[in-house]
UniProtKB/TrEMBL annotation:
One of its GO terms (molecular function) is xenobiotic transmembrane transporter activity. It comes from uncultured Alphaproteobacteria bacterium. PANTHER family: CATION EFFLUX SYSTEM (ACRB_ACRD_ACRF FAMILY), PTHR32063. Pfam families: ACR_tran. This is Acriflavin resistance protein.
Length: 1070
């Protein structure tokens, strides 16, 4: 018999001293990779987003779009790598977000935007300041957040500014930790020295706000004036000093009135305290009695550098904080680790490594029971060697240890052992023949016998997996570790099986303790006889074979009908089980910070009733530290008084009986009792299981003009509300913000000789405040800002405010000031709604989540589409609905479904294409192996049969068919074809032996039944260890039930196809 490449490899290595050295080298390299590869919870997807923030003071939204937004969009749209350009234009401000293609280096993206805008800034209108360009990427997401708050008994002694100052000191300490990236403090007002002018006293003494601010600036000045010679010593001369506090500021002389000095304290009140900023943070945690108490808080967010190990960084941060307890951090302040992706990554990695070890041991026990102890010992060496080599390859390719890469290894463990099982089982079978050959000769012959089909079978699995590497969009890099690691594992498993396995079999054959208690019968033994009893009636004649094939075909069609009948639902990815939830609140425009706080406090009290809730942080007027979901949704831009967020921390998974999604559904139901003003939006936001989107259900409305778009969007939002499982409705335009228009009377201005700039400065100082410098406090203490500003409660347009003096040059009677109220006219008006544009087109967005009977966007879309068709849209008829791509005809209203649907569409489209490429690749490989165009079609016949088991498994578990389920289906194509090849190759080898076709088929099935069953059981064992993971359950179900059904059917369908097509009553010829 010809040896082929496999036999020649086995012959060269079965007695070579290099074989054990290669094995040892593989183990050592793998262990080094395990110790070196960074650990993370999720794959780090590079989705650079660059925000271009432009101040367009005085421009209404409609004008800002034409003057600022359109030119900016045109500038950045042509940048290499830009995928989408979004813009939000409001009165006085413009935000343009440039989203780059997945995988673009983050720093390159920011540099490209910056260079392009600087090079084309001449296209911007006069008076528009240079924009602020902010890059945000995955490495800016905090891996650790630390919430500082005083203990309940000490809360009265701590102000918001005190906690914020302590948080800032802690942040400065944490940046000393190696590999720490972006750090920032969220929540808490800063301390400031505030000079609060009294408009009536300013008018009484004839002092203007500009005089007050100028005096403070001049008195708070210190600078290096030069150098002097003093007693033969050269000294630097410093002039001036900075103001120290209330006494220094209050006693500053402003002017004289009737010969009496006028000091700052005569016209203003000097206050040292919290800045009147429209942002605050609070912590809710149970006290000694178990009741939730509220204390002021501030959160330190710590990200890591790109490529750093999240576990190591998080451990170092926690250690640094523990070291600072009692020194920098007082005993009456508690530090809560409100987010720790390093610890969760480590826990997840440890859990999956345990599952990996469990799967390995289970497969080894299976081999020990089915074949023998010696073969089990070989498998015990082959599996770790292959996995460690795969980790080396993963390390070289730049992947990290995360949940997806480890799931890939667990998924691969069941198929990477296939080559070794086939080889050792065939060696054991050849040794059981006892035909006079030496053990080495029989082993080489056994390897050669299954070598060529094993090569092709291995390549078919790789051909099935590798096309998934080219899935586009966000899901591509998220799932990339699965095809990469699994393909690498298959490649390494082949070489290990052909080199190490025969060498080990030969060496362990000398160990009596490992001698097999039972040899493999050449005819298949008991399993072979069982197969004959089952298969013989199926292939008794052409008619019975045809009936069997028809029944299997009908079962496959019925399985496919489960999807349109909703017996099995579909979803991109199921919800994960996390230990955090968020509640996002947006009150109507014009709501105060206190309104936001009251609503969030009520929400926190409701959340405290959840048995799984452990603590919460409330952020009013300021964004909480953002996660990957917040990065995509731009949650860090939520900085208005009417916006707030509650971060709810849950008990660890092991300490609670419900998954976080069930808790989120419960919380959403409880929050319905919360009284909210009309126009409010309250959302329960979960950490997405995969790539995040702006909203799960998102409809973009396009049209010829703003009125048509808005009318259609409002109607569509009403249709959303009619579907019971569509929740958390929101839109992109929001309510107009109430505004106060202060217009200058130009005639009075000219008559009184008042400078227009002086009026504007007075208005800005009264309503916004004027910073005049800092009070420096020496080393280790942060300087305090000195600001001229009214108290927040006094910032209302009243007669008292209107009495503020403004300098004038032409006042009759010699008075040099005039009241502000004489120069301005004040009217109340509504601002503009926000204008949203995507890739140069105006759009209004309607957003929602899904919870209840159906949680995939496709079901919400279908329900809304039915309502759209039945609704009255007037003479123009219903809008056109698109599933993908922006509309080309903007002359009529149209709707584009986006959000999670877009990722679902792209993912399943690309997976379908990958499956087609996989089938084509497998077909070509099999044609090359067998030299026939028809035979590969027979081999591919069992592939669709996997759907019978897959659909039944999903129905049985009540699980949706997800992207990971589809990965399992695609992978099964390679695995099942591998089994088919082993069966068909044996049939071809037995051809020409003078036996009838049915006897040849029964013999092939009987002999190959055991290795095929063992490889299927090995893959099923690997899948069983991840069956209850919320994300990869679909993959496990596909492998478990798909393998169970298709393995059984493969051993019957292929013989039935042979009989149905070729049964002529004569012996089978080659």
């Amino acid at each position: 018999m010809t040896l082929g490449i496999s036999g020649r490899i086995a012959r060269a290595t079965i007695a070579s001293p290099l074989t054990p050295l290669m094995l040892i080298a593989a183990l050592v390299a793998g262990l080094l990779a395990v110790a070196t590869i960074p650990r993370e919870e999720e794959p780090q997807i590079s989705v650079p987003m660059v925000d271009v923030l432009v101040a367009a003071d005085g421009l209404k939204a409609a004008d800002a779009v034409e003057l600022v937004t359109r030119p900016l969009e045109a500038i950045v749209k042509g940048i290499d790598g830009v995928e989408h350009v979004y813009s939000q234009t409001a009165d006085d401000r413009v935000t343009v977000t440039v989203r780059f293609a997945v995988g673009t280096p983050e720093d390159d993206a920011a540099l490209r935007v910056h260079e392009r805008i600087r090079a084309n800034f001449d296209r911007m209108p006069v008076g528009i300041p240079e924009p602020l360009i902010v890059k945000r990427g995955i490495n800016d997401v905090a891996v650790v957040t630390l919430t500082l708050s005083p203990r309940p008994e000490a809360a009265a002694r701590w102000r918001q500014s005190d906690v914020a100052a302590l948080a800032e000191k802690l942040r400065l300490e944490l940046i000393k930790v190696d590999d720490v990236g972006l750090t920032y403090v969220s929540g808490g007002a800063r301390e400031q020295i505030r000079v609060e002018p009294d408009p009536e006293k300013l008018a009484l003494f004839g002092v203007t706000l500009e005089q007050l601010a100028a005096k403070l600036r001049g008195a708070n000045r210190a600078f290096l004036a030069g150098g002097v010679r003093d007693g033969g010593t050269a000294r630097e001369a410093t002039a001036g000093r900075t103001l120290a506090g209330m006494p220094d500021i209050g006693l500053l002389l402003l002017t004289t009135r009737d010969g009496r000095p006028v000091y700052v304290r005569d016209v203003a009140r000097v206050v040292v305290g919290d800045a009147p900023e429209e942002r605050r943070a609070w912590s809710f945690a149970p006290d000694a009695d178990g009741a939730w108490t509220r204390t002021p808080a501030a959160t330190v967010a710590v990200a890591k550098r790109g490529g750093a190990n999240a576990v190591v960084v998080a451990e170092a941060v926690r250690a640094r904080v523990a070291d600072l307890q009692g020194r920098l951090i007082p005993d009456d302040v508690r530090v809560e680790v409100s987010r720790d992706y390093g610890r969760t990554a480590d826990d997840k990695a440890d859990e999956l490594l345990f599952h990996l070890a469990l799967a390995t041991v289970s497969i080894v026990l299976l081999i020990a029971l089915a074949i023998g102890r010696r073969e089990a010992m070989v498998t015990l060496v082959v599996i770790p060697a292959t996995i460690l080599l795969t980790l080396v390859a993963s390390w070289v390719m730049g992947y990290t240890i995360n949940r997806v890469s480890l799931f890939a290894l667990i998924f691969a463990i069941g198929i990477l052992v296939d080559d070794a099982i086939v080889v050792v089982e065939n060696i054991a079978r050849h040794w059981a023949m006892r035909d006079g050959r030496s053990r080495a000769e029989a082993a080489v012959a056994a390897v050669a016998e299954v070598g060529n089909p094993t090569v092709v079978a291995t390549l078919t699995v790789i051909a099935a997996l590798l096309p998934m590497l080219f899935i586009s969009g966000l899901m591509g890099p998220y799932m990339a570790p699965i095809p990469v690691n699994a393909s690498a594992a298959m490649l390494f498993s082949f070489f290990v099986a052909m080199t190490v396995a025969p060498w080990l079999m030969l060496r362990l054959d000398r160990v009596r303790l490992l001698a097999s208690a039972h040899g493999d019968a050449p005819d298949g033994g008991k399993l072979g006889r069982f197969y004959r009893r089952v298969a013989a009636p199926v292939i008794r004649d052409r008619r019975t074979a045809g009936r069997f094939l028809a029944a299997v075909g009908i079962a496959t069609v019925l399985a496919c009908l489960a999807f349109p009948l909703k017996a099995v639902t579909v979803k991109l990815l199921p919800f994960d089980d996390k230990s955090e939830l968020a509640v996002m609140l947006t009150l109507p425009a014009g709501a105060t910070l206190e309104d936001t706080e009251r609503t969030l406090f009520a929400a926190a009290r409701i959340a405290a009733g959840l048995p799984e809730a452990r603590s919460a942080q409330v952020y009013a007027g300021v964004a909480a530290p953002f996660n990957f979901n917040g990065l995509v949704r731009h949650a860090y831009l939520r900085q208005s008084p009417e916006m707030g967020e509650m971060q709810l921390n849950l008990a660890p998974k092991a300490a609670r009986g419900r998954a976080s999604h069930a808790i989120a559904v419960d919380l959403r139901d409880r929050l319905r009792a919360l009284p909210l003003p009309p126009g409010s939006v309250l959302k329960v936001v979960e950490v997405p299981p995969g790539p995040p989107v702006l909203a799960t259900l998102l409809a973009e409305v396009y049209g010829p003009d703003a009125a048509a778009r808005r009318a259609a969007a409002e109607k569509l939002k009403g249709l959303f509300a009619r579907v019971p499982y569509i929740v958390d409705l929101d839109d992109s335009w929001a309510q107009p913000r109430p505004r106060l228009r202060i217009a200058i009377d130009q005639d009075r201005l000219e008559f009184l000789g008042v400078e227009q700039g002086a009026v504007y400065d007075a208005i800005a100082a009264l309503l916004g405040g004027v910073p005049v410098g800092y009070s420096h406090r020496g080393a280790e203490r942060e300087p305090i800002a000195i600001v001229v500003a009214l108290p927040k409660d006094d910032r209302a347009w009243t007669e008292r405010l209107a009495a503020t003096p403004v300098p004038a040059d032409a006042i009759p009677g010699g008075n040099r000031v005039v009241e502000l109220g004489e120069l301005v006219r004040v009217t109340r008006e509504e601002g503009s709604t926000t204008l949203f544009r995507r890739d140069g087109r105006f759009a209004d967005m309607v957003m929602a989540e899904l919870a209840g009977d159906y949680e995939a966007p496709i079901y919400g879309m279908l329900a809304v589409d039915d309502l759209i068709r039945d609704a009255d849209w007037g003479a123009d008829g219903p809008p056109a609905v698109a599933l993908h791509g922006q509309p080309r005809d903007e002359s009529r209203v149209s709707i584009l479904w986006d959000g999670e649907w877009e990722i679902t569409y792209v993912t399943f489209r690309d997976m379908g294409a990958a499956f087609a490429v996989a089938i084509l690749g497998i077909y070509i490989l099999v044609v090359g192996q067998f030299g026939s165009f028809r035979l590969p079609l027979v081999i591919l016949t069992p592939v669709p049969l996997t759907l019978i088991g897959i659909v039944f498994g999903h129905w049985l578990f009540g699980a949706p068919f997800t992207a990971t389920s589809m990965i399992g289906f695609i992978a099964l194509a390679g695995i099942i074809v591998r089994n088919s090849i082993l069966l068909v190759d044996f049939i071809r080898h037995r051809a020409g032996a003078g036996k009838s076709l049915r006897e040849t088929l029964l013999e092939a099935g009987a002999v190959r039944f055991k290795p095929i069953l063992l490889t299927a059981l090995a893959a099923m064992i690997g899948a069983a260890t991840i069956l209850f993971d919320p994300i990869f359950q679909g993959l496990a179900i596909s492998l478990l039930f798909g393998l169970a059904s298709s393995t059984a059917l493969t051993l019957l369908v292929i013989p039935a196809v042979y009989v149905w097509m070729r049964d002529d009553g004569r012996p089978l010829m080659p």
